[in-house]
Amino acid sequence: MSRVLRKITVWRAIFAAILLSGAYATYLRIFYGLGGSTNLSDRFPWGLWIAFDILCGVGLAAGGFTLVAIVHIFNIERYKPILRPAILTAFLGYMLVVIALLYDLGRPDRLWHPLVMWNPHSVMFEVAWCVMLYTTVLFLEFIPVVFEKFGWHKPLEWIHSISVPLMIAGVLLSTLHQSSLGSLFLIVPEKMYPLWYSPTLPAMFYLSAIGVGLAMTIFESWHSSRAFGRALELPLLASMGRVLAVLMSVYLWLRFLDLARRGVLDLLLRNRMETWLFFLEIALMLVPTVLLFQRSVRMRPGALYACAVMLVFGFIANRLNVGVTAIEAGSGTHYIPKWSEVAVTLSIVAAGFAIFRVIAHYFPIFEAHRQEPAPAAVGEPEANHIAVG
Amino acid sequence: MAKAILYDSTLCIGCKACEGACAERWGLPYNDQIAAEETISAHKLTAVIPHGERFTRRLCMHCEEPACASVCPVGALRKTALGPVTYDPDKCMGCRYCMQACAFQVPTYEWDHRLPKMRKCDMCYERQARGEPTACTAACPVGATKVGERDALIAEARQRIAEKPQDYYPKIYGLHEVGGTSVLYLSAVPFDQIGMNTNVPQGPLPALTWRVLELVPDVVSTGSVLLGGIWWITNRRAEVAKAEGKSK
Predict the structure, then answer these.
(1) Which domains does chain A have, with CATH numbers?
(2) A169, B231 in Cβ contact below 8 A?
(3) pTM of the predicted protein model
(4) Which end of chain B is more exposed for a tag (fewer CB within 10 A), N or C?
């Protein structure tokens, strides 16, 4: 770590500032409760920590199960080089979601309660179990990296022997809880703005999670290629971009079909905050979808990356709209996150980037250093990417 | 038979005796300042709210099929056979899904506590179990709040409307709202004019999520077979290709 601390750069200063404010916000959360650290209220009980840290966090980690399905179940071997970074992202993502949950739960010391106190009628109960089991699956999918690094062959063989049922379980658990995050909101038809409340929420959450999973894979490949000075798997990412274009077209088509079928298209003509936020969300998804149909865009790393980033932001806009904008409309109150809510969220994101970078640096995550006893080939990291890559 | 409460807004004089009795029963402080608060909160589980000349009273509706009990991941909330929806603070992990799910915005939270609980009216469960009326009913000097069997109270409400049609808006709030509630309202004017949410669905809310949740076993079984089958086919294809010497 001493190497990381050697140079003080702008990014490191920002990183340190974020973590410091996060630490102070944590102090407020512990000693002054949710009231002292958030702008939540009886009328608006779920805020940024649910809408971003949980809804977006779980979705952004969806690349893990998507790529496992592509590489190991559909046996499309050429995607293998980007499988491990996707699994690492997912594993870290889920760990961070659990940490965020500790902030948001009124009684974090009772995180384990759903293990022994059951209510199968609760979507939250199902999500809790799926996330718990899937985090275990992700741990087992990631751990071979550690075994390889230290040359432990016995446990490696053992993991390999259970890998197929493990991966199938991972894909199923993801299918269940990615869609269930949408089902959470099915029970509040009277509270949600009709542009977002829909019986199709579970299916839409699932489709968009697969989409953002692919977009995140492009995103992290681009960053790691810069940070670790390795070649970008461009043909691979470009073909992924094509899949993404088709998938998102289907998604967007279904969104508008759903609005039409529910007869709420006329809401798009109203000059309201909700309308503009809806258009922002759709634009952030539609523009990259259209662009990704062009071969010239897909084959240019910078353009491909920009499309992936736009899609990630479109996805985040969608989850924030469902979790905040739509609920706010029917709650009769106003919610803007307190600075401490934002500080905790930013800290968690920053920590995620930093931990990813450290693990990718010391363990054989990228195909190039597979099977090697030590990652000797890893180049000196570019200092200015600590907070973004 | 299940207990219920009938609140008749046309009889209520806004004396707030129910508020004081409720605070006493829960061991919560009650003074002029709290009496002036026109909303329910973690320290005020019922509130009498003026709407011009008239009053309405906020308390837990004790739904026949409560959304809160259905969404609680640890089963801390429960619809009892006696009628009240009760809460077990020792189970609650503070996810606040009950607050999000309640169509009436009833559950409230101890936001400023380090180890907070959710708070809501429990229709004086232990008093009712002993056969006593709720504290608010016992305190009401004019009989605006009445406790009894739900069916009997519905019959009585209908009779009041029939006897004095000029005094009542001819509907009972809570009869069909979210599939029926154990707190029923009578009013002289349409219910939205005394601050009641008339925008709630007329059917039970838990059905909306159960419709999806009940598919989980099907998704798991069908998905296992499907994914296992796909893996078997693609894996076999790769093996055959290798054996035939056609390198990938």
Answers:
(1) 10-385 (1.20.1630.10)
(2) no
(3) 0.91
(4) C
